[in-house]
Write a structure and sequence with these properties.
Residues 1-47, 230-257 are annotated as: Disordered. Residues 230-241 have a biased composition (Basic and acidic residues). Keywords: Coiled coil. Residues 1-10, 32-47, 242-257 have a biased composition (Polar residues). The protein has 257 residues and is mainly α. It has a domain at 3-152. 91% of the residues lie in helices and 0% in strands. The chain contains 6 helices and no strands. The chain has helices spanning 3-22, 25-42, 46-54, 58-67, 73-76, 85-256. The chain is rod-shaped and about 245 Å long.
């Protein structure tokens, strides 16, 4: 693996970890995105060409260093063209591995960038959702308050309707009772009128009988009075004739004397 790559990765990890501890997850993702972009810009593909030309075989240098305590400037600047075919093959293999690791690192960095972008978008969506959730909660509270007010108004209206229905039922019962009382009074009045009519008829019949009886009595009294007067007249006439006779006799006696 490339030492610069590993050191850059370690540097990224240390600074990324420190920044993650100091800031939130959203700032960490942005810092990682910015750092990965910076590291990508600082490692162009031309470095791989330069690496293929100036790469040093650290293992061979270590072996040479172990055999010789002092390294010359020529040994520090070993080139691929100075190596034997076997070392060149090893170096080529190592370069291919480095290029493969570098490509994989680039893919991983792109994936990290994509994941970071997705994380940023998810965090932004989360913020939007939190805002929308807060708005929805406010709307829900407002709706619940309105529902409570409407329910209270509905309860009041229902209470008024119930009271009005009770009043209407009471008035209807009173009207029914009044109508029943009027009907009873009418029936009593009709019964009383019928009784009074029958009593009047009875009284009239009795009065007619009394009048007829009184008329008969008057007629009888009139007849008796007429008979009495006729008898009286007759008696008066007889008495007058007797007196006349006596007077005549008396006058005759006087003449004779």
């Amino acid at each position: 693996m490339n030492p610069s790559t590993s050191s850059s990765g370690a540097h990224w990890s240390r600074h990324g970890g420190t920044r993650a501890a100091a800031t939130g997850p959203r700032d960490v993702s942005r810092a990682r995105n910015a750092q990965s972009s910076t590291s990508t810009r600082t490692t162009p593909l031309s470095q791989w060409k330069q690496l293929r030309q100036t790469v040093a075989i650290r293992q061979d240098v270590a072996e040479v260093g172990s055999s010789s305590p002092v390294l010359t400037s020529a040994q520090n600047r070993v080139r691929i063209s100075h190596l034997c075919p076997e070392d060149k093959q090893k170096v080529g293999k190592l370069i291919r591995q480095l290029m493969k690791v570098g490509g994989e690192n680039e893919q991983l960095r792109k994936q990290v960038d994509d994941v970071t972008a997705e994380l940023d978008q998810a965090l932004a969506d989360k913020d939007d959702l939190q805002i929308k959730l807060a708005q929805s909660l406010d709307m829900l509270k407002t709706y619940q308050a309105r529902m409570h007010a409407m329910q209270a108004q509905s309860d009041m209206e229902q209470a008024k309707v119930t009271a009005a229905a009770a009043d209407a039922a009471r008035l209807q019962q009173q009207a029914h009772d009044h109508a029943h009382a009027l009907q009873v009074l009418r029936l009593d009045h009709d019964d009383a009128m019928r009784k009074a009519s029958r009593q009047w008829e009875v009284d009239m019949d009795r009065l007619r009988e009394e009048i007829a009886m009184e008329r008969r009595q008057r007629l009888l009294l009139a007849e008796q009075l007429d008979a009495h007067q006729h008898q009286r007249l007759s008696e008066d006439k007889d008495q007058h004739s007797d007196i006349s006779s006596l007077l005549n006799l008396s006058s005759t006696d006087k003449v004779r004397n």
